[in-house]
Amino acid sequence: MVLGSDLRHGAGRGLAVLVLAAALTACGDDSGGDDTDPPSPSAQRPTTAASPSASAPDDPAAAQKEIEENWQKFFDPAVPTKDKQAVLENGDAMGQVLKSFSGDERGGQVEATVNEVAFTSPTGADVTYTLTLKGATVMPDATGTAVEQDDTWKVSVKTLCGLVGLSGNASPGPGC
Length: 176
Fold this sequence. Notes:
By secondary structure, the chain is α+β, with helices and mostly antiparallel strands. It has one domain (12-28, 48-166): Nuclear Transport Factor 2, Chain: A, CATH 3.10.450. Helices cover 30% and strands 23% of the residues. It contains five helices and four strands, in the order H-H-H-H-E-E-E-E-H. It has helices at residues 12-24, 60-74, 81-85, 95-103, 157-166; strands at 110-121, 124-133, 136-149, 152-155. Strands 1-2-3-4 form a four-stranded antiparallel beta sheet. Helix 1 (12-24) packs antiparallel against helix 5 and helix 4 (95-103) packs parallel to helix 5. The radius of gyration is 15 Å and the shape is globular. 40% of the residues are buried. Mean pLDDT is 72; it is low at 1-52.
């Protein structure tokens, strides 16, 4: 079965590109997307941090809950761009890129649900999430990163830039 083949009509090449690029969208650091080479896909899935450690925030359970809520908000097509910027790393500076993502027909139909969070530092986490397009799962184990910025856990710039790249937008704007 081809990934996304349960979509009935109009899936087309755009969906295939979206799915393929999402598979390659992983985020190693929170440097703002300066890295041009996509990371290699990994078969390993992060596990949820169970207790505080040097590689986790003081309250991992609260941080995980905030990550889940903010990712859902960020990927909710009904949430206004201004509210999405509040849960995006460097959100004020990323307005143009966010508009490119939200303005793309597929971007406006994409939603995500967090499956797992693995903390990589007190202010960083790998996030495994399910990506859906028009309600159909297109990527059950997409990967990205969350970063804590200004006391808020946010979707990383690198995650957004990878997704904008999937939309076929050759010039997503400054910051990517």
